[in-house]
Write a structure and sequence with these properties.
Number of domains of chain B: 2
Oligomer: heterodimer
Strand content of chain B: 25-35%
Order of helices and strands of chain B: HEEEHEEHHEHHHEHEEHEEEHHHE
Radius of gyration of chain B: 26 Å
Shape of chain B: globular
Number of strands of chain A: 12
Low-confidence stretches of chain B: 61-65
Largest interface: A-B, 26 and 25 residues
Distance between the termini of chain B: 99 Å
Strand order of the largest sheet of chain A: 1-2-4-5-3
Strand content of chain A: 5-15%
Low-confidence stretches of chain A: none
Structural class of chain A: alpha+beta
Mean pLDDT of chain B: 87
Number of domains of chain A: 3
Largest sheet of chain B: 9 strands, mixed
Chain lengths: 483, 396
């Protein structure tokens, strides 16, 4: 099949439209023609000249001639990763992964030698999930490095990795990680089945896989955790979750992701139970404030004034005096301005960030009030809402809150407190209805799971958190106390 | 997709169909803090005065602020209360929002003619809360009482409201009567209504001006006066200050008050009573009602030369306080019952609850003079706890 090397080289040249990046070098070794083919941007020419060319020259100079030139090269080449390949497709496969191919005249097999160039960036600090305490390394764009960061933490034969290649053109490497013996097998199988069903041109980032396997339209709440911290992945694996590593993405997916998981950070593992409980309460409060404040404010001041204490109502009335818009419209203006500001702040280069914040703070805060377009109290309401939607590391969760906030506001604007209540019922129904890989989204609150409740709003001391949640694992004992 | 749209659209329309029932922006309502009810000048119908909070924004120029009144009074006359109240829209650019009133001022003349119509109106109307306080404006029109600009708390109605609450807590002359209490007392045939009253002290004309709150000695203030008592729906008379306090003692309304009595032939002392508790025990067979007052006291002022370290003098002072409380209560109860011939204390209700059958027999026998045939046994147990920072008279 691979005997006619000229034909293969021609075919390759044809298919790649004579791509100049692919280098073909012809050489004669012991009177046999060989081709050294490599993909220049992906390979390190140092490695090629150091190992391959030098070894080949050495073989050439040997006095003893051999008929089995392939074995000769395979055994003598000073390159650790050597693979025999049998067909044309494999040539392409390895060529696009930074290997150097050696085609030998009249041989049935060819050789692929690893000569990858290091085109990944080094391990750096996490950008989006900062913690005060805890490991400071974060995932990078390289699959092997990412796996290494996890394997460095979990040293066992039970860390099983199921490798897949997804994407017609990108042929992206995807690994499904789980700890055998802890994880429930059906969860792993479900993830693998879902991944195998993906038929797509290219996977650019793990975000694409996330959207494809969590069924994007089902809910705006995230059901898959994305993280750039290896310690979070390791902890999740130890709890019986499944991680999906995607090549070229510094974000690793963890399934299942339940609502409760988005309130936890890695610091929660390291901190004292009592202190973490306080932080969690603050976070849940922030969650509720971010959802309800504008809606409740609008409902109260346009329908249910009787629910506000007299003095406060007088204050509200004084502040709203002269504001030309209805309260709902006023709220929407402010929310939209804030969202524009936030989006701009994310996109602009950091050197123009200060200009943005000055304009934002002055125009939105001060000038709008002085001009009488919005009331100061509305600024306070939107500000508290805005800061309350930020303490979550999961960006998708923050974004999901925005839609529900608007929905609640709509309910408040049409029906007052009753409307907010109606929307709350709708919201709770939607959340309870949601599932992440077969696990109820509101677990452990409903359905109640006592052992997981110990690590929900209240965090019990680490010693009493000795069981894995039963929805994740059948092997539930996590730590045994030594006497 | 179409299926989803078909499902969502009806709900959306349903939302729109509500037509924003009861929607009102804050700058469309006139926040009313108090309502006053007076007789119309021609004697027919009522004159209603409402106190509306001025929620207009003070100008951003700081010199300008303070020149706006904190509240505005509107006054209209009509054949009925609702009529008068609604015609206020003729003067006011906004509709009255009465949910937040905290004070109802009823003029003396209206109260003397009967407050049944007022009770009916406020009980019937769904817009009112039932927890506002009710006061009688003594010898003054409600408008006079409500227009005085009062220092410290410029909002007149809140001033009256707060001083009633403070007085009820720290002195015990006024009684906190919410509309709900008033209605309940009225509907109960065996008790009679008692309402606190206020009057204007000083120059009413000057008191409504801005200057009133700029002076250290205001031209006019609103002052609490003793309780007004009712028989049925009609007001009869006012109690004296002491009688008012005795009323509150018996009703167990007093938490904190002061007692002044003699400690020697030419010296007086004042003690503060804290956590005062009164228990009424009816004994219908022997026609006797025993009243037990328990309190802890602390000496606030003493003008006799006494050694407060000796248990004997403490005992003496305790006895003095007890005697004072016992005597005044007994004397005043009998006086109130005999002078005003109305059972404001609710003794009849107490007797009825303790033994309905005997009560009915007695009621048939004595009729309206039932309570006059009862004896009162007052016992007071006051414990002197703190003696102040010095134990002896200051001499040099």
């Amino acid at each position: 099949m691979l005997e006619n090397i000229e034909q293969i080289v021609n075919r390759l040249k044809n298919e790649t439209n004579d791509l100049t990046d692919i280098i073909y070098r012809k050489k004669t070794i012991q009177k046999k023609n060989i081709y050294i083919i490599y993909n220049e941007p992906l390979t390190s020419s140092d490695k090629i000249s150091d190992f391959i060319v030098r070894s080949l020259n050495h073989i050439e100079q040997e006095k003893i001639k051999t008929a089995h030139i392939l074995e000769r090269i395979e055994n003598n080449i000073s390159n650790f990763k050597v693979k025999r390949i049998q067909n044309y497709n494999q040539i392409c496969f390895y060529l696009h992964r930074g290997f150097t191919i050696i085609l030998i005249e009249d041989e049935k097999e060819a050789l692929a030698l690893e000569t990858k160039a290091n085109i990944a960036r080094g391990i750096s600090q996490p950008q989006t999930e900062n913690t005060v305490r805890g490991a400071k390394d974060a995932f990078v764009e390289d699959y092997q490095v990412n796996l290494g960061l996890i394997k460095k933490r979990i040293k066992t034969n039970d860390l099983w990795i199921e490798g897949l290649t997804i994407g017609k053109y990108t042929a992206t490497q995807v690994g499904v990680l789980s700890i055998h013996g802890i994880v429930k097998e059906d969860l792993v199988n479900q993830v693998i089945t879902q991944l195998k069903q993906i038929d797509i041109d290219g996977i650019i980032d793990s975000g694409v896989i996330k959207n494809l396997i969590e069924k994007e339209t089902k809910s705006i709440f995230p059901t898959i955790i994305t993280t750039e911290r290896p310690d979070i992945v390791s902890k999740a694996l130890l709890n019986g979750k499944v991680a999906i590593v995607v090549d070229n993405s510094p974000y690793i997916l963890i399934v299942p992701g339940l609502l409760n998981d988005y309130f936890k950070t890695m610091e929660d593992v390291y901190g004292k139970g009592m202190n973490i409980t306080f932080t969690r309460i603050i976070k849940f409060l922030a969650f509720i404030i971010a959802l309800f404040t504008p809606a409740v404010y609008i409902a109260l001041i346009t329908y249910n004034q009787e629910m506000i204490p007299t003095d406060l109502l007088a204050d509200f009335a004084t502040q709203r005096d002269g504001v030309p818009f209805p309260a709902f419209f006023e709220g929407v203006i402010m929310i939209i301005s804030f969202e524009i500001l936030r989006e701009s702040d994310l996109r602009v280069p950091s050197f123009s960030g200060s200009a943005l914040s000055i304009v934002g703070a002055l125009i939105l805060g001060d000038a709008a009030v002085s001009a009488g377009i919005v009331s100061p109290i509305m600024i306070i309401v939107i500000a508290i809402t805005a800061i309350s939607s930020l303490p979550f590391t999961e960006y998708e969760l923050e974004n999901a809150l925005r839609w529900y906030r608007l929905l609640f506001m709509l309910g408040g604007a049409f029906l007052g407190i009753v409307g907010v209540l109606a929307m709350t019922i709708f919201f709770i129904i939607r959340l309870s209805h949601l599932e992440s890989f077969g696990k109820p989204y509101l677990m452990p609150f409903t359905p109640t799971d006592i052992d997981s409740l110990k690590n929900s709003i209240v965090k019990f001391p680490l010693k009493s958190l000795n069981k894995r949640p039963n929805y994740l694992s059948n092997n539930r004992t996590m730590q045994r106390r030594k006497k | 997709m179409m299926k989803k749209v078909k499902w969502v659209l009806p709900w959306l329309f349903l939302l729109l169909c509500t037509g924003c029932y009861n929607y009102r922006e804050l700058n469309q309502i006139a926040l009313t803090s108090a309502i006053g009810i007076d007789k119309a000048d021609d004697g027919e119908g009522y004159t209603v005065t409402v106190q509306v909070l001025n929620t207009q924004k003070q100008g951003s120029d700081s010199n300008y602020s303070g020149s706006q009144p904190k509240f505005i009074l509107y006054e209209q006359t009509g054949p009925t209360l609702q009529h008068a109240l609604r015609t206020i829209i003729l003067e006011s650019p906004r509709r009255l929002y009465v949910n937040h009133i905290n004070l109802l001022v009823i003029s003396e003349t209206v109260a003397k003619d009967g407050i049944k119509e007022i009770l009916d109106f406020f009980a019937r109307n769904t817009e009112f809360r039932k927890d506002f306080l009710v006061v009688i404006s003594r010898e003054a029109s409600t408008e006079d009482v409500m227009q005085i600009l009062t220092p410290l708390e410029t909002l007149n109605s809140k001033n009256i409201h707060d001083s009633i609450m403070a007085d009820a807590k720290f002195y015990g002359m006024a009684t906190k009567v919410t509309f709900e209490d008033l209605l309940n007392t009225y509907l109960n045939q065996r008790t009679n209504i008692v309402l606190p009253s206020v009057e204007v002290v000083g120059n009413t004309k000057k008191g409504e001006g801005e200057d009133n709150i700029k002076q250290s000695v205001p031209d006019a203030t609103v002052k609490l006066t003793p309780l007004a008592i009712f028989s049925g729906e009609k007001m009869m008379d006012y109690l004296t200050e002491e009688e008012s306090r005795i009323y509150n003692y018996v009703q167990n309304n007093i938490q904190n008050t002061i007692v002044t009595t003699d400690c020697s032939e030419n010296g007086k002392f004042t003690a503060e009573l804290i956590s005062t508790k009164t228990k009424l025990k009816p004994d219908i067979e022997n026609k006797k009602i025993s009243i037990q007052v328990k309190a802890t006291a602390s000496i606030k002022e003493i003008n006799c030369n006494m050694n407060l370290l000796s248990p004997d003098s403490i005992q003496l002072l305790e006895n003095k306080i007890n005697t004072e409380i016992e005597e005044t209560i007994e004397k005043d109860i009998i006086k109130i019952i005999q002078t005003y011939k109305t059972d404001i204390f609710g003794f009849e209700e107490l007797l009825y609850k303790s033994n309905p059958n005997t009560y009915k027999q007695l009621k048939e026998k004595y009729g309206e003079e039932l309570i006059e045939n009862f004896k009162f046994e007052v016992s007071s147990k006051v414990k002197l706890q703190t003696k102040g920072n010095i134990v002896k008279e200051i001499t040099r």
